[in-house]
Amino acid sequence: MSEQQKAQELRATVAESQAERSEIIFPGDTNSLGNLFGGKLMQFVDLVGAVAAYRHARAILVVTASMDHLDFVAPVHVGDLLILKASVNRAFRTSMEVGVKAMVEDPKTRALRHVCSAYVTYVAVDQSGQPVPVPPIVPETEHQKRRYQDAQRRRDGRSDEVARKREIRKTLTMDWHI
Ligand SMILES: CC(C)(COP(=O)(O)OP(=O)(O)OC[C@H]1O[C@@H](n2cnc3c(N)ncnc32)[C@H](O)[C@@H]1OP(=O)(O)O)[C@@H](O)C(=O)NCCC(=O)NCCS
């Protein structure tokens, strides 16, 4: 049985790999305004997204290929309770698009404030870093089905960009071009 066939047999629902992470924001991770650094938030986004991708892929490793549509919607302050949720929107051949949403929760009222969203693409790889097939994902709810459709549209846009960058790389020297 080929790796592709083995992956096909491991098809799973979106719910089976969804991931959540909670953080209390401390002063060490903020700027002088007391807001969380964008880079730190990106790290949390990447980590929670990777957990969902790992769970779904059941691969040796997943690596982050790209992060896009990253929106910092509102600042996160010291002492805030930050909740991040991630789910695999769609699995392709060796890659998966994971949607991550971050909210700040008011512990008294449990009200949520949207602070950040992103789409992160992870690629399942073997021990030598070579991409390996991932199982198909089965969207069940209306939201999951919509995200599944939208993920294909975003992938089409990304493919053009990935191909364009590959072409540019072929013609560039090893010098800085900034
Ligand atoms: C991601 C990586 C494994 C892809 O390797 P590659 O040689 O381009 O492999 P392929 O061309 O066979 O592409 C494999 C998959 O990655 C996807 N991919 C590659 N670059 C991508 C990008 N920038 N954005 C989204 N998807 C990408 C391809 O579409 C393909 O998906 P598919 O199999 O589902 O169709 C490789 O670029 C890599 O190792 N990058 C470094 C990753 C890393 O270290 N991340 C941590 C942050 S530093």
Automatic annotation (TrEMBL):
> Which top-rank group of organisms is this from?
Bacteria
The UniProt transmembrane annotation reads none
Q: Which Gene3D superfamilies match?
A: Hotdog Thioesterase (3.10.129.10)
What Pfam families does UniProt report for this protein, alphabetically? 4HBT (PF03061)
- What family classification does the UniProt entry report for this protein? Belongs to the acyl coenzyme A hydrolase family.
Could you tell me what this protein is called? Acyl-CoA thioesterase
Please list where the region (Disordered) is annotated: 133-164
Species annotation? Terriglobus aquaticus
GO MF terms held by the record: fatty acyl-CoA hydrolase activity
- Enzyme Commission number(s): 3.1.2.20
Q: Which UniProt keywords apply?
A: Hydrolase
- List where Basic and acidic residues composition bias occurs: 140-164
Q: Where is the HotDog ACOT-type domain?
A: 15-128
